[in-house]
Amino acid sequence: MSFFALKTIALLSMLWDHLTYVWPVSLTLEMIFSPDAADSVPALLALQRATDYLGRIAAPIFLFSIANGYRHTRNFNQYTLRLLAFACLAEYPYYLLFGFHGNIMFTLLLGLLTLRLMDWGNEKRAGLGYLLCAGVVVAAQYLSLTEGGGRYILFILVFYWTERWPVPKKALLWLFLMPLSRYKLIGMLFSEQLTGRWLHMLCINALGPLLGVAFTFLYNGKKGPAFPGEKYLWYIFYPAHLLVLGLAQKALLGA
User: Fold this and answer.
1) Helices 128-143 and 149-161 sit at what angle, rounded to 10 degrees?
2) CA 216, CA 1: separation in Å to the nearest integer?
3) Which pTM value belongs to this model?
């Protein structure tokens, strides 16, 4: 699978996730087919939960793209400035749609800078780069300034470090790492907060993203189709679709 195909899958997954945030599948279908129903149809709720997984494919592919992009970029400074520019451009639409700050492009930017920091540190002293990376991951997780926090920064590093690993070895690592990264949900196993919704949230947030990780295993190292402006399509789409959906949500709520 080419890099172009991977990015297309991620883009469609993200679009689905955000579309269903504004127009949930269960409510939309209920309004169309069962507008007079007193209670939600259980089958529609089950469908909503099943299709939620489609929206979890995107994030791991975007994180993988940063690790892959860092390895192959011809101009690190331009790459960094491009991410920064579109992260800033996307911030208002992101806030408009979700009501909080720290869109994922800032996470991707921080991940890219962390990879450079790692190489810089290791050039200065053996192991220093890894120590600096650990500091960034902990700080990002504690401060929670961007989407995914330190967890997503760690995933970018793992994608970078394991590029040449055989697929079975990578799969075992991610089967352990992804659920472990949701330690707060795992911790609820030892509390009295276990509910059906908890199980759903655990599966969506700990197991769902593994679908995206699995797609990265299919990457064949090829760029895929290219066309004029292709490099910027992915960047422009992010703030543009957030703005459209944010305005649509605002209109629906009458705000």
Assistant:
1) 150
2) 9
3) 0.89
